[in-house]
Amino acid sequence: MAFSDVSTPDVGALFERVPKATLRAHVVERLRGAILAGDIPPGAPLVETSLSERFEVSRGPLREALRQLIEEGLVVTVPYTGTRVAELSVEDVHEIYSLRTVLETFAFEQVWPRRDDRFRAELRRRNEALIASIDAGDDRASILNELEFHGLVYEVSGHRLLQRAWNGLRGRLQLYWAAHHRAHGRRGPKRDSHDSYIKAAFGADLEAMRREIADHMRRGVETTERFLRTMPTSSGKPKRGDNS
Amino acid sequence: MAFSDVSTPDVGALFERVPKATLRAHVVERLRGAILAGDIPPGAPLVETSLSERFEVSRGPLREALRQLIEEGLVVTVPYTGTRVAELSVEDVHEIYSLRTVLETFAFEQVWPRRDDRFRAELRRRNEALIASIDAGDDRASILNELEFHGLVYEVSGHRLLQRAWNGLRGRLQLYWAAHHRAHGRRGPKRDSHDSYIKAAFGADLEAMRREIADHMRRGVETTERFLRTMPTSSGKPKRGDNS
DNA sequence: CTGTGCCAGATTGTCAACAATCGACCATCA
DNA sequence: TGATGGTCGATTGTTGACAATCTGGCACAG
């Protein structure tokens, strides 16, 4: 999955410590998947006891899983009262995309001087995978592929805190994209947008790349914002105890 | 504490919901304080059972507190084996300061067009508080004041995700500064550095402010890196079960 | 002397019961 | 009718005991 594994099979990796998966990690994956798939829509209550029997775990690991999803921005909680899936808002969209612009630009600045051919090749490969999934009409794969595409530059940067910051945005972004694709079916033709992105990434002009990133994000925030405005408020607040 | 409270006493705030403090939150504060004060030095093991009796809590809340400190970068853990205070490294210093440069520049760009006089006044106030604590030789207060000083622009930006990113850096920064000040006593004369920072912040030239931030961070990373190199490796890894 | 397998202690992971708190509902009264 | 106070169910917070896993050292064979 990591960039270095893509092009250079590392024999040493075969002997890597494979830590036994904890229940918490498992619950995080499943719960995150359920939220991003829309099985549990934004605003829906997340009751610890219900979830613990749904996932067949006790409340201990479940609580820790919820805390992690709170960190990722997928879940919000208020002490002694309740926990629910995060709601969507236009303010968040602006924050996500503006910060993303800054981070992705910085990531490219880190990678740029290296003239890394493997990076570029892998970027093209991921772009083709993305195009393929779009053409196939597979929305779920398209979202994942788009995240993989944009994630590459963070991986290659080797900047762990930067990767961490990207991870903090990734889940939030996915939440919006997933809601969008559920509401509107396949997402518009992104092909052109990615073509120019790729072209700039392969060029020699860093300033042009900066502009390209800014434009790319501008288009993203417009699309997402327009979508959000069509569903005025995601729902009348569900009261305590409903489990739609 | 929030910026808006500084200049405009808000009567409504008196009636604000004051959430009952949970044990977890309390433990987080105390444990973080102990780490940042150096009571528990980098690399020292954090055994859940010991800590739970030290803080007179059960392991449940304590574990959740540890998870939060992991998020903040103050603690590292490996499943089924152990948890310890994060070690210091020069790579981390570079990452912290480079990301900080990007974020703080972005924060200033957000605030800049507003020509916010209250922001500038508060910035000056916090700078004077910082100078005062430096002159008084109070290292602990100086660190806190420096964080408050730089934190202002994030608060004023109103950008929650940006504030969140800053919070992710804040603890890590504090860890290094605290170690530095324990090793070397009072930190060098930062007065000049802050004078030019303030001057640029009050000027009209955003580009000059960008340069000032970059320079400021460059000085910071140099100082911290030089300090780290004097303590080659913070210690031979303490073995399992030692509790220094 | 070197490597290998096993054992014991230490540490984290998990569970199920209990306590504290909150929010909605309803009866009551001005 | 509108406000007010109490009560009850629902939900999260906390606890102590138990299970799973890892690490380091030691005996033993080569």
UniProtKB/TrEMBL annotation, chains A, B:
HTH gntR-type domain span: 21-88
What is the name of this protein? GntR family transcriptional regulator
Alphabetic keyword roster: DNA-binding, Transcription, Transcription regulation
Domain of life, per lineage: Bacteria
The record's annotation in SMART domains points to: FCD, HTH_GNTR
Species of the source: Reyranella aquatilis
Q: Which InterPro entries match?
A: GntR_C, TF_FadR/GntR_C, Tscrpt_reg_HTH_GntR, WH-like_DNA-bd_sf, WH_DNA-bd_sf
